[in-house]
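Q: Joint fold for the lines below.
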Amino acid sequence: MSSASSEPSEFLAVVILGASGDLAQRKIYPALFALYCQGFLPASFKVYGYARSTFSPEEWGERILSRLTCRYTPAADCAAHMQSFMEHGVYRSGSYSEPSGFVAMREEIQRDAGGRLVHVLLYFALPSTVFPEAANMIGRAGWTGGPGFTGWMRCVMEKPFGRDLESFRRLTDELSGNFQESQIYRIDHYLGKEVVQNLLVLRFGNLIFEPFWNRHYVERIELSWYEDMGVGERGAYFDRYGIVRDVMQNHLLQMAALIGMEHPREVPGGVRDEKVKLLKSFSTALSEHCVLGQYEAGMLNGERHSAYTDEASVEVDSHTATYAECVLWANNARWAGVPFVLRAGKGCGERKTEIQLVFRETALNPFAGESGALGSNRLVIRVQPDEKIYLRVNTKRPGLAWTIDEQDLQLHYQSVFSEQIPDAYEALLLEVLKGDRSLFLRSDELEASWAIFTPLLHAMDENRVVVEKYAFGSMGPTGIFKP
Ligand code: NDP
Ligand code: BG6
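A: Joint structure:
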C-alpha cells in the first residue's frame, strides 16, 4: 500500500503492544479513531490490542469507548461511528516472555486477512526496557523473516529510547536482530504538533526572518515547558527517568533543533540532516549551567497538591528532578555565544509550552529622555495551549506624549483558522501509514541527543547535582534566565 487509501486486496493490522497502558488508551486509540472518521484508514483494517492484563470484551469496549471523542464527526453520527470503529478492534492478553501469544495473533491476523496482502503497523506502547524481549518473541513467532506477512511491517517505538548513550546503542543493536532500520519509526510526538510543524514554514517560507535569525540579533533563545500536574499514575516510571530524560532530551531538544538548524534542502525530507548537524554542534550540558528542582507540596487553584516524594510509587527519599533548566551552547557560526535555555517543569503554576527568541537591545535609544528604557523585541511561539505566534514590539501609545509601550503583532490560531488542530499522534500515525519517516527520529539524531545529556545524567544519577525544592504551583526554583 503506497498511501492511506483503501485497496480491497489489502488488509491493515494495527497491533498495539502495551494496549492496557496510559498512552495507548489516552492517545493512540483516539488518534486511530480520528483517522478513521476522516477516512484515512483503509476499508479493511483491524486493531489488535495486546498486553498482559486480562479484560472481558465488555470491559475492554467500555475502556476504549470512554476515550474516543467526536471532534471529526457530526454529533448525530458520532455514536454510530464509534460503534463501527469498535467493531474493527479486539484485545488479546499475552506474554512477552514466550512466543505463543504472538503465534496466536499472527494466525488470527492471517485468518482475518483472508488471503489479502497483510500490512502490519506494530506500535510499541511499552517501556523501552521491554522492546527487545517483545521484538524477539515477535521474531520467534514468525512475524519477520521466513514467510512472515505479505505486505509491509512498520514498527513505531516510543521514547525515551534508552537511559543514556550507551543503553541507546545497546537497544538499537538488540532491535536490529529483528527489524531493519527502515522499518523503525521512533516517535517524538512534539514533531507532530501543529505549531512545531509551522516552525518550518515560519523560518523557511518567509524571507523576512532569515536576516535576524542569528547571533548578531538574537541575545538568547528560551524553550519553556511547564505542566500544572504532578507525575500522577506514572510515578514508578518517572522516578527512574526524571524530567531530563522524560522531556528535555527529546521534546525540548527537538524544538531547539528546528529553531537552530540551517536551511533544509526540502521539507520534511531534508530536515533530519540539518537537525543532526545542529545537535552535533551543541556542547555537552554542564551541571554548572543547570538548575534542578523537585516539587514539594503546594497550592494551585485553591487545591492542595502533594509533594513529589508523596506520589504513588515514588521513593520517599527520591532525588529525581521534576524541574530542570539547562543552558546549551551551539558551536557554529550562526549561534556562537547565544544561550539556548531549555526549561521543563512538572507541578508548576500553569501548562504552557513556549519558544522565545529574545532580541538584543537597540544600539541607540532616541526615546530614552521621553520614555525611558525600551523593552527587548521577542518572537514568541506558543506551542500549547492556545496556539499563537507573536512579535513583541515597542510602539507609541496613542496620545500627545511619547509614551512607548510593548505590544504584540499576533497570529492567534483560534481567531484565524476554522480548522481543527489535529492531535500530534493523528498527524504522525498518518505519516506511518504513508511510509514517510521524515518526522521520526533517526539513530544518528538520537546518538547526538544522548551525547549532549549523558554526562549530566550520570552526575544526576549519582546525586552529584543539587536538586532544589520548589512549591507545587510555582514556576520552579530560581533559574538562570527567568523571563
Ligand atoms: P505504561 O507504564 O502504562 O505501560 C504500558 C503497558 O505496558 C502497561 O499497561 C503494561 O501492560 C505494560 N508494561 C509495563 N511494564 C511492563 C513490563 N515490565 N513488562 C511488560 N509489560 C509491561 O506506559 P505508558 O502507556 O505511559 O507509555 C508507554 C510508552 O510510551 C513508554 O515508553 C512511555 O515512555 C512512552 N510515552 C508515554 C506517554 C504518556 O503520556 N503516557 C507520552 C509519550 C511517551 P500489562 O501489564 O497489561 O502488560
Ligand atoms: C510525554 C512525557 O512524552 O509528554 C509526559 O512522558 C508529558 O511526562 C507528555 O506529560 C506531554 O505531552 P503533551 O502532548 O501533553 O504536551
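Q: Anything notable?
A: The pocket of NDP (ligand 1) is lined by residues 18, 20-24, 51-53, 96, 125-128, 130, 158-159, 234, 237 (CB under 6 Å). Residues 1-7 have pLDDT under 50 and may be disordered.
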